[in-house]
């Protein structure tokens, strides 16, 4: 056998080995590595880049592709220009004049002089990817024929490992225009604007029970959501200090009265005692006022209900033994049949809501049941909520029977109808305006 025939057999054996290695790949990652590395011994290329849907998926001699690397950007830009010129469907040598000046400059700096584009086509004969191969010497007609055949094998192997049909590099221009027109018309469709916000069922017209004095809560005599009647004892303050103050005030009043009585008896014979009577009488009145005030504070140490209802508060243990100041809120007396919805709408989600706007409540305890409500009031000024978020307070009235007071959930508020484009892009546009001022 002569030398040329032996060399041809060796090249053909290497070619068959490349096909077998491609078909033997267990997954797309292993196949991608084989596509950019295994053919180097046969074709002698310096660079090989695998592109799928216009993006570099693998590079020869590199274990992981850096998306922002200059060579990656160059190959993707060159493939995009081939696509724009309709040259991506044919396997062949890439002519530098097909590319713009910047891409040609990057080619000279980053890649070899001779490049070959090997497209991958699916069963519909549409390109979904390809290989960019580059080396110093020109590509012979025999090598181009082998690469064209190898491209069919590589495309078949890649499609066999894909669970779904990959994105194609190119759609017909007419289809793209039709899709763009459909999307543009779709963005003009009117839809009802809506937002979600946390909400809580709160008493309507409840009576706030506040601390009548500065002191320490000694004992809670009711439990959360317990029914009470007017006059029922709700809680007691620690009255040790108050009793002591009342006793001291009582004794001080007795001393002042005794001193006034003694001076009154001596006033007939003693001019000085007679002159002190007005002062001592005023002191008696002062001590009597101090005693009455101490008794009043002692009487306030027991807090009673002023109306019928239920006691609305979180936990008695939270207050027991805690010092409180006058006017500090302790609990609320509410009618269980009278409730409203309190909503905390974050500032970033605020939309234009008209009075009487529709509100739907979905409770955390019953997310499948919808409670209808109507917007009654909305605050003009945002405040910091318990979660530390700046939000507007909104109040809504229930259309039917109100849920139990204290339940929490998510409220959906409905606004006016707006184009679908504004509905989808409202938050991004607001963020863009805040960042760049447009």
UniProtKB/TrEMBL annotation:
<protein>
    <submittedName>
        <fullName>Efflux RND transporter periplasmic adaptor subunit</fullName>
    </submittedName>
</protein>
<dbReference type="InterPro" id="IPR050465">
    <property type="entry name" value="UPF0194_transport"/>
</dbReference>
<keyword id="KW-0175">Coiled coil</keyword>
